[in-house]
Amino acid sequence: MSNLEASPQVTPCESAGSHGAVAEFFVAREVPLGGVRGIKVNRALPQRSLPTVGAWCFLDKFGPHNDGMLVLPHPHIGLQTVTWPLAGEVRHRDSIGNDVVLRPGQLNLMTSGRGVSHSEVSAPGTVLSGLQLWVALPAEATGMAPDFEHHPKLPVFRSPGVEATVFMGTLGDATSPATTHTPLVGAQLSVAGGTIPLRPDFEYALLLLDGSVQVADVELTPGPLLYLGTGRESLTFAGTAEAILLGGEPFADDLVMWWNFVGRSHDEIAAARADWEGADPQRFGVVAGHGPDRIPAPGLPNLRLKPRPRRPS
């Protein structure tokens, strides 16, 4: 999904570092997305004081609604898009020739590398809800050729009171087949009490989709993102809920996020914008089936985009 804000915020993302085990709430903000069929999403990442969780740098929750979604071709650089539907169907088409219908329980993973474009259109007359996440690529992967993976079957981690579909990385003995470029995990949890294993070198966050639980000595309900920090070897739940677990090694790079681009300098972002506006076929290609229709890039702000230095750990 594109960030369709007409005036996207400049998001200088400093690496969060490691601060040990915490339990901090971050309120998701409602963001109206424009385009042909505008929708509203709840954006949990990035936050000013929590730009990333591991390499996870963007988390939107959309729906449920039956207004349909039509996101015309738009570009990405420097990231992986992770599309995780909870209800409904989404048709993905991209500039490297993929045309896939995505359903709940399945994963679409697109790696932009140096540049890719894609569109997403929901099936008509159906209720749609889901998550759109981005993973920042490490510097050595930002120049790679774009790639796309569709995974219709994913592994499940099970322990007493817990069943978790692992869509990225590893949880316990379950490892997703999806390609990762930094150590991380993404999983949808169904919990009725129970405990999950964690890696103490990872930082983690939880987003509740339904229900309520006691976890890390706090009460968690749908809405805010609960940041758990590092240093935990396990996490125990009391209550019944559906939740999304995100985690990974604290990301070492300072980033600039603007519109649909993740970069490390103003010049990198400005060059990507110019290439998209110039319809550079070598960088962003063409998404079949839309003719000349595409999402134009917004204007750059009247300042140089700068990453912040890494926050001391």
UniProtKB/TrEMBL annotation:
SUPFAM superfamilies, per database record: RmlC-like cupins (SSF51182)
Domain Pirin N-terminal residues, every copy: 39-135
InterPro entries from the UniProt entry: Pirin (IPR012093), Pirin_C_dom (IPR008778), Pirin_N_dom (IPR003829), RmlC-like_jellyroll (IPR014710), RmlC_Cupin_sf (IPR011051)
Tree of life domain: Bacteria
Record-annotated Pirin C-terminal domain positions: 195-277
Region called Disordered, residue ranges: 290-313
Segment forming the signal sequence: none
PANTHER family: PIRIN (PTHR13903:SF8), PIRIN-RELATED (PTHR13903)
Similarity comment: family membership: Belongs to the pirin family.
Protein name as catalogued: Redox-sensitive bicupin YhaK (Pirin superfamily)
Organism phylogeny: Bacteria, Bacillati, Actinomycetota, Actinomycetes, Pseudonocardiales
